[in-house]
DNA sequence: GTCCCGGTTG
DNA sequence: CAACCGGGAC
C-alpha cells in the first residue's frame, strides 16, 4: 500500500470517527502543548478533567509561569508521573521569561523544551505550525506494526528509530497535523491493543497482521517489568488539628509530593512486627494521647507493590512546643488542615486520609 | 486479583 | 536503559 493510499484511508476514517476534544480545532500552541503533556502516559478520559482545570486556572502561558509551584503540583495531584508537572511549570517559566512568551515553532526548537520529547515536539510542530514531522506514540507503533508488518521491538532504541523513520516516510506534506491526529485516533479507537474489530476496519484487506493472523502479537514489545515490593511504616502524627508531613525527595517515587514520616522495611515480617518505631521518639518529647493502628494499605503500581501500614499518634496539645522542635529537627513540617489540603499528596495518602475518618 | 497501557529523563 | 504512576479491561 502506497503512503498516499494509506494516509487517505486514515484521513477518511478520521473524518467519520473523530472525537470532539477540546484541544482539537485549535492552533494555539499553549493549549496543544498543555494537552500533550497531560496526555503523556495518560488516557483521554483520565486527563480531560485535569486539562480543563489547568486551562481554567491558567488561560495563558503567562498565568502558568507566574503561578506558585505548590499550586501547579496540587492541580496535578492524582495524575501520576509528577515530573511532568514540574517540567510543565519549568517549561512555562522558560517560555515566559526566556522566549518572551512566544512558543518556538519548529520541531528542532520545541524538542529542547523541558518535558518535551520527540513525540510532543512533533505533535506541537504539526498541529500548531503545520510542520510535516510524524508523531510516533503507542498508537502509531501499533497501527504501523500491524498494517505494514513491522516486527521490530518497540521497547528498544533501535526499534523506535525504525518506526520513526518509517512514519516520516508516510506523512503527507499537506495537512500533516490532521494526518497525525488521524493515525493516533485510529489507533486509539479502531486498531486498539486487544481484540480490535478488524472486520469493520477500512484497512483490513491490506493489513499485514490481519492477513497473517498476527494481530495479537504485533506490535512486539520486549519489556519485562520487574515489580519491587516495598513495606512502608507511616506515622500519622497529629496535634490539635495539625498534621506532621514531610516532602519526598529526589530519586524515588512521588518526588516533591507530601506524605508522612515513614520507615521503610525490606520484609513484610518487619512491617507486621515493628509497629511503633516512632513511639519511643514521640514518647520522649511529650505525652501521646492515643495510638491507633490503621489497617495496611496495598498500593499497586506498575513497577512497585507498596504495603503501607499507618499508625496514628495523637500528641497532647501541652507537648506542642516539644513536637515542633522534633518536627523541625527532622526536616518535617507541622501544618493545619487547610495547608494539608493545599499540598499535593500521592494517591496512597489520599486513600488513607479519606478512609481514616 | 492479573495484565496491559503509555513519553521523557538521568 | 531503567525508573517514573494510576486506572481500566478482563
UniProtKB/TrEMBL annotation:
Keyword DNA repair recorded: yes
CC cofactor: [4Fe-4S] cluster
GO MF terms held by the record: 4 iron, 4 sulfur cluster binding; 8-oxo-7,8-dihydroguanine DNA N-glycosylase activity; adenine/guanine mispair binding; metal ion binding; oxidized purine DNA binding; purine-specific mismatch base pair DNA N-glycosylase activity
Listed EC numbers: 3.2.2.31
Keyword annotations: 4Fe-4S, DNA damage, DNA repair, Glycosidase, Hydrolase, Iron, Iron-sulfur, Metal-binding
SUPFAM superfamilies recorded: DNA-glycosylase (SSF48150), Nudix (SSF55811)
GO terms under biological process: base-excision repair; mismatch repair
InterPro entries in the record: A/G_AdeGlyc_MutY, DNA_glycosylase, HhH-GPD_domain, HhH_base_excis_C, HhH_motif, MIG/MutY, MutY_C, NUDIX_hydrolase-like_dom_sf
Catalytic activity: Hydrolyzes free adenine bases from 7,8-dihydro-8-oxoguanine:adenine mismatched double-stranded DNA, leaving an apurinic site
Superkingdom of the organism of origin: Bacteria
Keyword S-adenosyl-L-methionine among record annotations: no
Domain HhH-GPD: 38-189
Cofactor mode of binding and number, as noted: Binds 1 [4Fe-4S] cluster.
Protein family according to the UniProt entry: Belongs to the Nth/MutY family.
Annotated function: Adenine glycosylase active on G-A mispairs. MutY also corrects error-prone DNA synthesis past GO lesions which are due to the oxidatively damaged form of guanine: 7,8-dihydro-8-oxoguanine (8-oxo-dGTP).
Protein name, UniProt field: Adenine DNA glycosylase
Amino acid at each position: 500500500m502506497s503512503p498516499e493510499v494509506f494516509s487517505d484511508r486514515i484521513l477518511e476514517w478520521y473524518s467519520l470517527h473523530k472525537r470532539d476534544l477540546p484541544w482539537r480545532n485549535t492552533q494555539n500552541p499553549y493549549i496543544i502543548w498543555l494537552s500533550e503533556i497531560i496526555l503523556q502516559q495518560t488516557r483521554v478520559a483520565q486527563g480531560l478533567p485535569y486539562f480543563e482545570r489547568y486551562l481554567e486556572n491558567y488561560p495563558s502561558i503567562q498565568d502558568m509561569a507566574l503561578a506558585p509551584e505548590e499550586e501547579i503540583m496540587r492541580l496535578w495531584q492524582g495524575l501520576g508521573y509528577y515530573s511532568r508537572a514540574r517540567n510543565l511549570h519549568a517549561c512555562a517559566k522558560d517560555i515566559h521569561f526566556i522566549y518572551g512568551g512566544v512558543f518556538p515553532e519548529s520541531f528542532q526548537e520545541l524538542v529542547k523544551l523541558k518535558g518535551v520529547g520527540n513525540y510532543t515536539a512533533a505533535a506541537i510542530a504539526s498541529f500548531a505550525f503545520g510542520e510535516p514531522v510524524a508523531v510516533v506514540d503507542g498508537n502509531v507503533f501499533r497501527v504501523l506494526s500491524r498494517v505494514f508488518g513491522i516486527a521490530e521491538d518497540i521497547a528498544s532504541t533501535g526499534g523506535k528509530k525504525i518506526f520513526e523513520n518509517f512514519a516520516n516516510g508516510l506523512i503527507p506534506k499537506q495537512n500533516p497535523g490532521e494526518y497525525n491526529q488521524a493515525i493516533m485516533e485510529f489507533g486509539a479507537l479502531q486498531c486498539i491493543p486487544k481484540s480490535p474489530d478488524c472486520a469493520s476496519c477500512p484497512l483490513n484487506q491490506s493489513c499485514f497482521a490481519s492477513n497473517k493472523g498476527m494481530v495479537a502479537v504485533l506490535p512486539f514489545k520486549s519489556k519485562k517489568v520487574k515489580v519491587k515490593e516495598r513495606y512502608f511504616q507511616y506515622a500519622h502524627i497529629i496535634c490539635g488539628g495539625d498534621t506532621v508531613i514531610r516532602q519526598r525527595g529526589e530519586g524515588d517515587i512521588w518526588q516533591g509530593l507530601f506524605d508522612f514520616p515513614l520507615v521503610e522495611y525490606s520484609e513484610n515480617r518487619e512491617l507486621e512486627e515493628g509497629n511503633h518505631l516512632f513511639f519511643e521518639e514521640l514518647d520522649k518529647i511529650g505525652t501521646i494521647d492515643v495510638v491507633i493502628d490503621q489497617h495496611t494499605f496495598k498500593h499497586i503500581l506498575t513497577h512497585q507493590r507498596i504495603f503501607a501500614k499507618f499508625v496514628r499518634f495523637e500528641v497532647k496539645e501541652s507537648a506542642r512546643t516539644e513536637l515542633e522542635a522534633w518536627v523541625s529537627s527532622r526536616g518535617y513540617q507541622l501544618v493545619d488542615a487547610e495547608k494539608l489540603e493545599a499540598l499535593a499528596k500521592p494517591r496512597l495518602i489520599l486513600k488513607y486520609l479519606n478512609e481514616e475518618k
